Amino acid sequence: MLKLGAFALVFQTITACGDNHSAPETQQELLSPAVLAKAQMTENHRRLTDNQSHDFYPFIKNGRIAWQRDIDGVHEVVVYDTATSTETVLTSDKAWHDWNATLDGEVVAWYGTGVQDGSINEIFVQTPQKGRVQVTHAGSAEGMGHGFFDPIVSGQKVVWYGSDGTKGAEIYQLDLADGKLTQITDNDSPDITPVIFGDTIVWCGFDGSDQEIYFQRGGGNVRQITDNDTMDLNPAIDGDYIVWQGRDRVDGDFEIFLYEIGTGRIMQLTANEELDMDPSISGTHVAWSGKQGGDYEIFLYDLATQTLEQVTTNDQDDFHAAIHGNLLAWDSSPDEADSEIFTATISAK
Ligand SMILES: [Ca+2]
Ligand SMILES: [Ca+2]
Ligand SMILES: [Ca+2]
Ligand SMILES: [Ca+2]
């Protein structure tokens, strides 16, 4: 293992911003840039699908993987259980393109785009108790914009974003336990791509000039993590850690950042001149898609050991890293044809 370099410490003061957003109380440390030691952490690399359909956008929870597959021109939800090695195509109706599937236990959620009317997008949730339920109804209301997108499930909670019909996109939460729908944000700017862990919701909002990362814990005040003049996008959360992609203010490419809620520390995980995007986090492991030598590869970083692995090495794009526990998944197009789902396991230390 290589020796780690020292972190350069930069102090960043976060100031108050926007309507209902409260300012972080403390100064934050920006640890930048991390000098990464290389280590092999994954094994059992596997091509999970092998067909003529596009398989992409995997999501993992507790050994179950959900993704979307283009079947005869219509996108459907597929769920794979690693415990039983069984694949189930969950949706088969041809009325909706079903996208961005997410799951936790037996609860599965996704959004559908009307095949007939491609401008309407609705959230669907499937549970053992109630079966499949369309939980939003943008299509039946006047002036509801394009509807609702990108649900994420955690326990009995589902979050998503979409137009409230009058202003920019807002963040919504549905509690499946009591059926209560809560609008988390209410402002004039777009709030998009929420993620949830327990009672903490994280999303990407707009501060008037560019995108920032916000979160709300336990229904309390909205707190702002980033405050800069460049784009901060695609947050993910696990436990006390929030990750996202932010623009490198020197080179203009995207880097991966991490925020620790308990300490308020921000850490920059990548420092290069290529695009690093779409991070996912589980425990101390962070995975993302980064450009390397002309195409994208999957990278895995362990916060505990401060080591980095380039998981893929090939000439095609590897996208949409998803991680939970010791399982990592992503999609790629190995034959320059349709895309497939790939998995790897993270070895026990
Ligand atoms: Ca395929
Ligand atoms: Ca920003
Ligand atoms: Ca970069
Ligand atoms: Ca690649």
Provide the β-strand percentage band.
over 45%
Q: Any idea what the shape is?
A: globular
Intertermini distance: 14 Å
**Which stretches are low in confidence, meaning pLDDT under 50 for 5 or more residues running?**
1-27
Instruction: Give the beta-strand count.
Output: 32
Mean pLDDT: 88
> Tally the helices: what do you get?
0
Query: How many strands, which pairing sense, and closed or not: the largest β-sheet?
Result: 6 strands, mixed
State the share of residues found in helices, binned by percent.
under 10%
Number of domains: 1
Question: How are the SSEs ordered, and which strands pair?
Answer:
Blueprint: E1 8-12, E2 21-22, E3 28-32, E4 37-38, E5 42-47, E6 55-61, E7 64-71, E8 74-81, E9 86-89, E10 96-104, E11 107-114, E12 121-127, E13 131-134, E14 148-154, E15 157-163, E16 169-175, E17 180-183, E18 192-197, E19 200-206, E20 211-217, E21 222-224, E22 232-238, E23 241-247, E24 254-260, E25 265-268, E26 276-282, E27 285-292, E28 295-302, E29 307-310, E30 318-324, E31 327-332, E32 340-346
Parallel strand pairs: 2-21, 3-25, 4-29
Antiparallel strand pairs: 1-3, 5-32, 6-7, 7-8, 8-9, 10-11, 11-12, 12-13, 14-15, 15-16, 16-17, 18-19, 19-20, 20-21, 22-23, 23-24, 24-25, 26-27, 27-28, 28-29, 30-31, 31-32
Bound molecules: calcium ion (CA) (4 copies).
Question: Could you please describe the fold and organization of this structure?
Answer:
By secondary structure, the protein is mainly β. It has a single domain (28-346), classed as TolB, C-terminal domain (Neuraminidase, 6 Propeller), CATH 2.120.10.30. The protein has no helices and 32 strands. The chain has strands at 8-12, 21-22, 28-32, 37-38, 42-47, 55-61, 64-71, 74-81, 86-89, 96-104, 107-114, 121-127, 131-134, 148-154, 157-163, 169-175, 180-183, 192-197, 200-206, 211-217, 222-224, 232-238, 241-247, 254-260, 265-268, 276-282, 285-292, 295-302, 307-310, 318-324, 327-332, 340-346. The strands form 7 sheets. The protein has a 6-stranded mixed β-sheet, with no helix packed on it. A 5-stranded mixed β-sheet has the order 2-21-20-19-18, with no helix packed on it. It starts with 7 loop residues before the first strand and ends with a strand. One calcium ion binds at residues 49, 51, 53-55, 338-340.
